[in-house]
Amino acid sequence: MSGERTAGGGPAVGEGAVSEGVVGEGGVGGVAVDDFYGRLKAFEGRTAAVGGEGKDPVNEPMIRHWCEAMGDANPAYPAIAPPTMLQVWTMGGLSGHPAGSARSEAYDELLALLDGAGCTSVVATDCEQEYVRPLRPGDRVTFDAVIESVSPRKTTKLGEGHFVTTRMDVRAGGDLVGRHRFRILKYAPARRATTAKGAKRPRPVINRDNAGFWAGVAEHRLLIQRCTGCGALRFPWLPGCGACGCQEWETVEASGAGTVFSYVVMHHPPFPAFDPPYAVGLIELAEGVRMISNITGVRYDEVRIGMPVELEFLRVDADLELPVFRGVVA
């Protein structure tokens, strides 16, 4: 059997999703295309990792955790490991791989060559897996990897660069159990277009269900709905209570105090009227409900989960004012 999945951690921009760059005279980073690509092609077939060993044997607890996370209730597990766990048994974790199973010098040289040509950014694009036989608890996994291919120059929305594909052969007891192909894009970031002068933020969609909230914002008040049937607070605004179904409600003004429950930092893609990078937080209000808004007053890289925040109202243009949360640094 065989399988294929898309790698996480970034947008899927595989080779099939981009247009091929036209080979011109300039090349990437000012290097002549033909000469540079020839140097890249020379790495094909060279080792990317040799003598790799899995940190743990195939085991039932990890199989159970995987199945719970994926919602996979196949009764065949954990007698065998789900085939798509193939890469799991080869990963080094935060502490890295054991001594002797590190990345090869050839792979580091390839990445350094691309860095030197201006392809300093990287994104994982996709992976493919082939399965020869199931892994079972107790199997000890070993692996080798080879640089299988380096693509010609490609043009993507992220920028121009090259796709690098590595093939990992995974074994147990010396027998091949599967192959894992992993593809990355090493690219030179495209120049970001300057924001059009006068570009405005998107307008909020105001309807009869949330009009009261925006009326409160106009008065610099952050209003939360409270069900008159069961007393449950809710946000965002909804026509009925999710706890008891009651459609009657009243409003409570939030104190404005809260903490960062979670957050993301927006880098790409850029949007008109926004200047990345910036932090977008899921804020847990003192009243217990959560809402999404921008985090202001601190650098994006200073935002932390649990950071105290305070409500403020930010006028973004003449017609729009929004509730945001200012980070409080101890």
Automatic annotation (TrEMBL):
**Residues annotated as domain FAS1-like dehydratase:** 53-171
| InterPro entries according to UniProt | ChsH2_C, ChsH2_Znr, FAS1-like_DH_region, HotDog_dom_sf, NA-bd_OB-fold, Thioester_dehydratase-like
Domain ChsH2 C-terminal OB-fold: start-end pairs: 252-313
Segments spanning the bilayer are: none
**Mind telling me which SUPFAM superfamilies this protein's record contains?**
Nucleic acid-binding proteins, Thioesterase/thiol ester dehydrase-isomerase
Q: Which Pfam families match?
A: FAS1_DH_region (PF13452), OB_ChsH2_C (PF01796), zf-ChsH2 (PF12172)
Q: Which domain of life is it from?
A: Bacteria
Question: What are the residue boundaries of the ChsH2 rubredoxin-like zinc ribbon domain, all occurrences included?
Answer: 214-246
Protein name per its UniProtKB record: DUF35 domain-containing protein
